[in-house]
Amino acid sequence: MSTAKPDFFVLLRGLWDYFADKRHTLSYLLGLGTVMKRTISYWQMAGFFFTSVVGTLLHFLFDWTGGSTIAALFSAVNESIWEHLKLLFYPMLAFAFIEYWAWGKDTASFWCIKLWSILFGLLLIPVAYYTYTGALGIKADWLNIALFFMVAGLVYWLETKWFLSGRRCAIGNTLSLILLCLIAIVFTILTFAPIRIPLLRDPLSGTYGIQ
């Protein structure tokens, strides 16, 4: 009996140390999760400011470069709604690559979330624009500018919610990235070979695509 007590207490101490270590490990992992969530939120806020600034610059880039063909690939070549969608698409796509390099490689649905959020933004801009100009008869330049910033903010907010919730997508990262590249190709084609529909028509000059 004299040796059983020490053995018993040693066993208890060993169990205590084991579960204490597990508790600290869990706390550490939870701490890492909190840090990661905070990191993603900061990156998404940076993305909003990046998209806002670069998108604004792209609005003027084509004129600043004297009608450069290279600039036409990424910037608005006229005042049509379609061309202004580039101001959202390309900055968001560029920043997505930066985010992927920084933290997105470990996120299973990174490119899928980026795909759906960008598509949502590209759809929301013309729907909102034609609603307040066509259905409500409101035409104001300041509202067009505000629409861009509001949509960019909403899209990044949605992305952040999806990333932090661990949202899963049915479309894989590779296919999502391919689809984003196809969108870029469509923008390029319709800039140089536009179809004559109201979405692509410059309301000021009545022209389509690059001139």
Short description:
This protein is an all-alpha fold and 211 residues long.
Fold blueprint:
Elements: H1 4-64, H2 69-74, H3 81-84, H4 86-102, H5 110-135, H6 141-164, H7 173-192
Helix pairs in contact: 1-4, 1-6, 4-5, 5-6, 5-7
Sequence stretches where pLDDT stays below 50 over 5 or more residues:
1-5, 22-32
> How would you state the average pLDDT, rounded?
86
The class by helix and strand makeup works out as: mainly alpha
Can you tell me the overall shape?
elongated
| Total beta strand runs | 0
| First-residue to last-residue Cα separation | 99 Å
Query: What is the number of domains?
Result: 1
Share of helix, binned = over 70%
Q: Which series of helices and strands comes N to C?
A: HHHHHHH
